[in-house]
Amino acid sequence: MAFVTATAGVQVLIKSQPDTFWTKIQDSANSFPQAAPSLYTSILISGTGCAKSNSQNIKTSSELITENSLGKLAYTVTAGDILQKYDVNNFQAVIIHPNSEKWVGWTWTYNYLPENKARALQLDAEIAVIAVKTLTELDNYIQNKST
């Protein structure tokens, strides 16, 4: 049976200076739990990253960062709830540096079997909520720290 490839993502308009925001994205292991404790209980870096989340359906995720540059932070999910609960594989995500108008993007792609389309749609909805909350709460955290 052939896999279907899904691609989804979100964009968030930030108030922070793009370079300041991006520095926090690149240091997400520290900044995400500080800025969004309702979402992230911890992020451990050891070969591959391991995030522990307070999300309703996604509690753990092991990730391999494949790029951490001035333009993007890319990672592949190697284990955890995303792959197991939603029955997907090859989950990859990219956070894109804010553009000149201060829009930051977070996109993801993965493969699933056609009979698992409902699960894939649930995954997209769950990841979209996490991504928007993470980016928004990080932006608010930076704003509050600078005042």
Q: Main beta sheet, described?
A: 7 strands, antiparallel
Looking at the structure, the CATH topology is: Alpha-D-Glucose-1,6-Bisphosphate, Chain A, domain 4
Tell me the number of helical segments per DSSP (H or I, 4 or more residues long): 4
Q: Rounded to an integer, what's the Rg over CA atoms?
A: 15 Å
Share of helical residues: 25-40%
Between the first and last Cα atoms, what is the distance in angstroms?
55 Å
Could you say which structural class the secondary elements and strand pairing correspond to?
Answer: alpha+beta
Question: What does the average pLDDT come to?
Answer: 90
**Count of β-strands:** 7
- In percent terms, what proportion of residues is strand? 35-45%
Domain count: the total is: 1
Q: Would you list the SSEs in sequence order as H and E? A: EHHEEEEHEEH
CATH C-level class = Alpha Beta
Kindly report the spatial arrangement of strands forming the biggest sheet.
1-7-6-5-4-3-2
Assign the CATH architecture.
Answer: 2-Layer Sandwich
